[in-house]
Design brief:
This protein has 194 residues and is mainly alpha-helical. The protein has six helices and five strands. Helix 1 crosses helix 2, helix 2 packs across helix 5 and helix 4 crosses helix 5.
């Protein structure tokens, strides 16, 4: 393993690339605001970093959401105990999977740009890409529910009940308007640049 070209750390492993590196942390600190907006409080420890290192390869191959390494109780995420099972309150599952998966991807894309092309992506741009991909994913899911059947209509109604109270979409004149412009609460002035 070689050293990190982004922060000059002597060790560059998967945990460093996707979590520990200050460049990755600046993306995570911003993107986790989306989870916080949905009531998911995230607590990270060294066990979580170990989990990220071991699970990240499977994320790139298609995360299945059944990892035993995190558990969520009353809106907080913590590494699970030895015999613990991964459980998320049902209302948090989709936003957790989307935000964490899209953030891992954006950390990786940003890192590759900086390491391979020498182009650093500004923190706000990383956050805008996560938001854009989140909205695009939700829109794709909603559009896949189109159809004349009662089952499709009920699935669309469930989808809209779940997501319409968020900053991600609005219903105007009976039509869905997707908010590709990230909300201001995602850009706190107090997060330092690294």
């Amino acid at each position: 393993m070689s050293g990190c070209k982004a922060c000059n750390a002597s060790l560059e492993d998967i945990a460093h690339c996707l979590w520990c590196c200050p460049r990755a942390q600046e993306i995570w600190l911003r993107s986790l605001r989306i989870l916080a907006r949905f009531g998911v409080e995230v607590h990270v420890s060294s066990a979580a970093i170990t989990w990220l290192a071991t699970e990240s390869a499977s994320w790139f191959q298609g995360w299945n959401g059944n990892s035993p390494s995190f558990m969520v109780k009353q809106g907080s995420v913590q590494p699970a105990t030895q015999g613990g099972l991964f459980f998320l309150q049902e209302r948090y599952v989709d936003i957790w999977v989307l935000v964490v998966g899209l953030t891992v991807w954006q950390v990786w894309v940003s890192r590759c740009k900086e390491t391979l092309a020498g182009k650093r992506t500004p923190p706000a741009e990383n956050l805008m890409m996560i938001w854009f991909n989140l909205i695009s994913t939700l829109r794709g899911e909603f559009e896949s529910l189109q159809g004349p059947s009662d089952a499709s209509e009920e699935a669309r109604a469930r989808f809209l009940r779940k997501w319409s109270g968020s900053s991600m979409l609005q219903i105007m004149d009976g039509k869905v308007k997707w908010n590709y412009q990230p909300p201001r609460w995602l850009f706190p002035p107090s997060v330092p640049n690294i």
